[in-house]
Amino acid sequence: MKRPILRVLGLLLVCALLTGCQSAETPGAVQVTLPPAAVKHTAPTGDAAQAYEQTVMLYLPSLDGTRLIAVPKRMSLPAGAPMTETMARALLTEPAGSNTAVLGSGVELSLAAGEAVEVSGQVATVSLAPSALALTYEQLFTVGQALANTLCQFGDVQYVNLLIQGVQPGMGPGVQPAGCYQANTREELSALWARAAASQSRRTYTAALYFPAPSGKGILCEPRTLAFSGADLPSMALMLLDALSTEAALLPRAPRCPDFRPLLAEAPSVDESSGQRRLVLKFQEGLNRTLIDAGITRSVMMASLTYTMTTFLPHLDALEVSIGSERISSLSPSGVYGRSGDIISFEEGALKRSDFSGFLLAECGLYLADGEGQLKQVYRPVPFRDAYDPRKLVEQLLLGPQPFDSVPGLSPTLPEDLRDSDLLGAAYDGDVLVLNFSGRLPELCRDLSAPAEERLVYSLVNTLCGLPGVKRAAIFVEGKQPESLGGSIYLPGDFLPLPEK
Hints:
Layout lengths: L1 H24 L25 E11 L6 E11 L4 H11 L23 E4 L2 E6 L8 H15 L7 E6 L24 H8 L7 E9 L6 E9 L5 H13 L14 H4 L5 E3 L6 E6 L2 H9 L3 H15 L5 E6 L2 E2 L2 E2 L12 E2 L15 E9 L5 E9 L6 H10 L23 E7 L2 E6 L2 H6 L4 H15 L7 E6 L24
Helix pairs in contact: 2-3, 9-11
């Protein structure tokens, strides 16, 4: 019985082998492959205003006013713009809840006109409309702390300045500064206010210092904790001048400001004869030559001084600056991003914060190639709103490496002949940033090596995935996703960031 069974099994095995050989040699045999990636997005034509959804915490006073309570809120945040302004506006207008009160204690609060919320160097500066003047200083402190808790929750902002119509209100009717607010979700408001209002013992504050940017095209903010020896405006102004005279700790590429003290013609003073509170700074003629030697334009230096002083010093409306016998009454900036070529006139010599809003920069993160062919993140100063705009970031990549980048010696990743106009559209689709290029992109990528094509794709993906609300990126050409740009990287679908590429 065993032998017939073995014979049958042997015949079946031979048949199976013969059948396998026959299948392998049959023309048109089915090959198993991955299905093509489904096109899930519509290629944008132009840059339409869009938004993305995110849950944020709004910090509102408890009904008894003793603490700030986190209230979760699903919000529509504008894509391509800093989320801080939308969050600040939502906080100021959020109605009372079952266990929370309206912020402002019955005073209707709103943001000031113009650039009401600015972000630079992890510092957000919020300027309220004049209605906030009706608040007591303790109530105003609650507003500042609520803004700090709300705006600092994502890490890109760590400090908050609070102004009213561009003027620092301080902690009282005198000259006690407020300094930068920081998030504090643990302590009760009464304890925080008692510590902040202790004018006799408190002499250390975190101040926002605005240094000339490495590019020379504007100013960048750096927060710094300073110990003030005097409690009057002139002595505090001297301390701020000394701080600007030292090298910026977080901006090592920034040009070194002059040593201001030896260049002062007389000590700083305060003038209120015009009905405004002005800080009067009189420098010697030698300041002009010192600025030239440092590579700092006069307009950028005035922006640096005005922003630093008006952001920190209480109830200061403007600066009045003289160099030698010349009182600064107008400036004609050149080489800056904002207001370049315009003549900025200062009525009666009053330099106000709003005069220099176009000078404020922020550092955006870009990915360029190092000498070993790996992508490296660099930081570059740009107008602070551009740092959130996907089109502006692509334009910065197209510029290639710049001498003021945080990392020197890198190489471009995009084709040299690719132009700004070749980006036909950039739009958000949920958490995906969709780019649509012209047909010139694959033409310029035709001869790229596999590593170069990989660097091109991931320099775009990694850069754009640094934007708020963006987790993936997709690349289209003339409204479609081709198989590849240069023949090496499969393009259809979405790309996750790979910072180590």
